[in-house]
Amino acid sequence: MPADSNESRLARLLSQCTVELLSELGVQPELVSGMPHAPSAGECVAAFSGFGNDQIRGSFTFLGPGKLFSRLHPLPSGVTPRDLTDWACELVNQSVGRFRNRLLAYGVKLALSVPQSALAESLRLASSLQPARSPIAFAIDGMVLEGWLELKIEPAFRLAERPLANGQEALKEGSVVLF
Amino acid sequence: MTLTSAGYEILEARDGREGVDVLRARAKIDMVLCDVNMPCMNGLEFLETVKGDAAAPPVPVVMLTTDGAPDLIARAKRAGAKGWIVKPFRPDLLLAAVRRIAGEPG
Fold first, then answer.
1. Which fold would CATH assign to domain B2-9+31-102?
2. pTM, to two decimals
3. By C-alpha distance, which of A60, A49, A48, A46 is closest to A10?
4. Is A49 exposed, middle or buried (0-12, 13-18, 19+ CB in 10 A)?
5. The complex's ipTM?
6. For residues B79 and A115, what is the distance between their CA atoms, to the nearest angstrom?
7. Does the distance separating the beta carbons of A176 and B89 come in below 8 Å?
8. DSSP classification of residue A130
9. Using CA of residue B28, residue B30, residue B32, residue B33, what is the dihedral sign?
């Protein structure tokens, strides 16, 4: 995939958004090239959110060990399986939500689906699905959080080189506005 | 966690529709914190429903969401929301906002 393609640039933007989010959660994520070949061992969590408009459709999936999602939880001790899957939904929602907020400045508006998650053993994205997705992996405390970005883009779509002068600026994450 | 630690009693609803049912069923609810991206009935639909419902108590609603789009914020304000918080939130700022809306000392 060319580095300046829509897909590459959107993947970089989503990757940046995810790094920002994880950093705000108090960890230092490192981008990893490639994906682990072995499935995550033990209890794993997968969470995904879809997004789209009339020119772009896609989804983003997080996949990783349950221990990693527990580590990222605001209350790491005493996390129940329900807490874990709820939290995984929240993580993918916040990552894709931040991506949507950034894209507003480029004149791109996305609608998001309600995130979904699942808890399973020894989980790996099906190899038949991998070619249609861009892998974005993050190393965190010796564990790997896999991100899989799926994009279907209409040929006429072109992401602007930089934020537009007349693009909308989203309210920044963490902002509190009272009316 | 932030709010229960501060002594508030929290009722949860899984989506906007359940939120409307909870509001209609409970006489005393002081405030609603509401996500936007929810199944069945999203947060803005919930807001517009309860603000247009004479049977629902006039409770302050604050939106708590990943979405920072100015047009949605303007829509929520027009519909009668009391505030908009973009996740992830800082617990101290959330608590300060809740106390301010509840009319309590910060």
1. Rossmann fold (3.40.50)
2. 0.92
3. A60
4. buried
5. 0.92
6. 26
7. yes
8. G
9. negative
Residue A27 contacts B, CB cutoff 8 Å: no
Sequence spans of domains, chain B: 2-9+31-102
CB-CB: which of A90, A114, A176 is closest to B39? A114
B87 and A177 in contact by Cβ < 8 A? no
The one-letter amino acid code at A37 reads: H
Residue recorded with tokens 């896999």: A146
- pLDDT tens digits, B17-69: 999 999 988 768 999 999 999 999 999 999 999 998 887 778 999 999 999 99
Asked if the A6-153 domain carries CATH number 3.40.50.150, the reply is no
Beta strands in chain A (DSSP E): 30-32, 40-52, 56-65, 111-112, 116-123, 133-140, 143-153, 176-178
Q: How far apart are the first and last CA of chain B?
A: 18
DSSP code of residue A132: G
Closest CA to B34 of B70, B84, B90: B84
**CB contact at 8 A, A127 and A85:** no
CA distance B24 to B14: 15
What residues of chain B lie within 8 A of the CB of A101, using their CB?
66-69, 86
